[in-house]
């Protein structure tokens, strides 16, 4: 499996001197977006490489192309480097093509709504010419490394393209586990007032090939009260370890800020409120990164080959959820999606597999097979029909891991011979949404008797 990891090298020697380079690249990109949009009917069927060649003929004057159709490009962007130009053309073509794809989807939605007689008020997508894009510095032509922390890059300075020596922070390639991977071309990225070189490393990773009977599964429930609850189990249903991951301080701060944001919006209207959102986004990012790293560390500690999570689907808010409560529910759902994405990326980089299972009834059913549970107002405690009380998210994590193992057994088992006989003994196996940890234990016992 191909994996890519990007390391950030902050540039320490220059700040404002790089502004002009970024500005002229983004202006050239905007111009090329306009050109490709005008000529899109002729360019639509071409490959990206063919589009780069065609747009260069339309915009750039050469000895073999003395009269390009758009002469303004060479006048506005004098001595614009060829590698920058080709990179900008490819990026502009991707932006325009994406816009047309979104417009076609919008037309299909409008047509479908008209056929069903429904009102359609969704606005059509618009093509934005201005983009916060960052240039790629191709090695040899735009970027020449002179040591581990220094390099020469080509920048736009005082109306000309010149080589500029820069100094940047070093990254430990062995610690980041990319020392054996291929180094790609760096990208000049601006964040706030600082600049950095983002260097991607790509390589091949072999995912685990262990049989299901020998696998250890790390089941993760992205709960309501905890950021994540994890449990490691083997194929027989034996729970080997558990972990509760939560950021209580950060969530308390988030609750205060969301309340203040809604209070400010009630007083002064629904404005942007950037200061509140900056703090909220910072806390949200910390929660996501901390949760993902702790999940991976827990899975590594207990030698798990597979990480199993629930399919999140679309966000569904309870009726009567308004104001700050509605905002918190949205933030929590967005955090879950980001955690799931980051865990998948980190797990694949380490050779672990990631599996997604059907979330129906994982929290509603008791792991011991006693039926549906009742949950308290806070929804962190589940009461079984037997009177037993248990942590609701931990109960769900058991069922999540069991469903993955049962699904793997079901795929590997002959449908006509063995699995139907198991369903006859345990009718709850007929519906996958009723699979629990108890179901897995019963199936393993039945399989051991048959063998």
From TrEMBL:
Domain of life (superkingdom): Bacteria
Lineage, highest ranks first: Bacteria, Bacillati, Bacillota, Bacilli, Bacillales
Protein name, entry field: Transposase
């Amino acid at each position: 499996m191909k994996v890519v990891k990007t390391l950030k090298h902050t540039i320490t020697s220059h700040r404002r001197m790089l502004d002009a380079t970024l500005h002229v690249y983004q202006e050239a990109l905007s111009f090329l977006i306009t050109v490709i949009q005008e000529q899109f009917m002729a360019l639509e069927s071409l490959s990206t490489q063919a589009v780069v060649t065609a747009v260069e003929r339309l915009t750039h004057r050469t000895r073999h192309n003395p009269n390009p159709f758009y002469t303004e490009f060479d006048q506005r962007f004098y001595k614009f480097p060829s590698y920058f130009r080709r990179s900008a053309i490819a990026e502009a073509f991707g932006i325009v093509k994406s816009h047309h794809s979104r417009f076609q989807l919008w037309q299909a939605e409008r047509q479908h709504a008209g056929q069903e007689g429904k009102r359609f008020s969704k606005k059509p997508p618009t093509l934005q010419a201005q983009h916060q894009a960052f240039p790629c510095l191709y090695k040899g032509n735009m970027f020449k490394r002179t040591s581990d922390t220094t390099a020469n890059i080509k920048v736009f300075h005082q109306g000309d393209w010149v080589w500029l020596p820069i100094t940047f922070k070093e990254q430990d390639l062995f610690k980041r586990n990319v020392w054996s991977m291929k180094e790609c071309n760096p990208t000049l990225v601006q964040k706030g007032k600082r600049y950095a070189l983002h260097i991607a490393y790509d390589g091949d990773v072999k995912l685990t090939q262990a049989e299901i009977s020998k696998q250890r599964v790390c089941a993760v429930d992205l709960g309501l009260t905890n950021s994540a609850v994890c449990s490691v189990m083997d194929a027989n249903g034996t729970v080997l370890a558990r972990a509760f991951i939560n950021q209580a301080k950060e969530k308390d701060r988030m609750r205060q800020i969301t309340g203040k944001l809604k209070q400010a919006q009630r007083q002064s209207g629904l404005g942007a409120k950037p200061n509140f959102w900056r703090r909220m986004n910072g806390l949200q990012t910390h929660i996501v990164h901390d949760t993902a790293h702790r999940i991976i560390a827990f899975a590594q500690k207990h030698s798990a080959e597979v990480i199993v999570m629930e399919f999140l689907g679309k966000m569904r808010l309870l009726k009567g959820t308004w104001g700050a409560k509605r905002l918190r529910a949205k933030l929590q759902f967005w955090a879950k999606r980001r955690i799931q994405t980051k865990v998948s990326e980190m797990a694949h980089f380490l050779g672990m597999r990631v599996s997604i299972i059907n979330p129906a009834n994982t929290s509603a059913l008791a792991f011991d097979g006693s039926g549906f549970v009742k949950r308290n107002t806070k929804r962190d405690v589940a009461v079984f029909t037997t009177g037993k009380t248990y942590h609701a998210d931990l109960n769900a994590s058991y069922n999540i891991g069991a469903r993955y193992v049962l699904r793997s057994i079901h795929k590997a088992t002959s449908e006509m011979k063995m699995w139907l006989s198991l369903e006859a003994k345990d009718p709850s196996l007929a519906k996958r949404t009723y699979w629990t940890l108890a179901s897995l234990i019963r199936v393993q016992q039945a399989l051991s008797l048959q063998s």
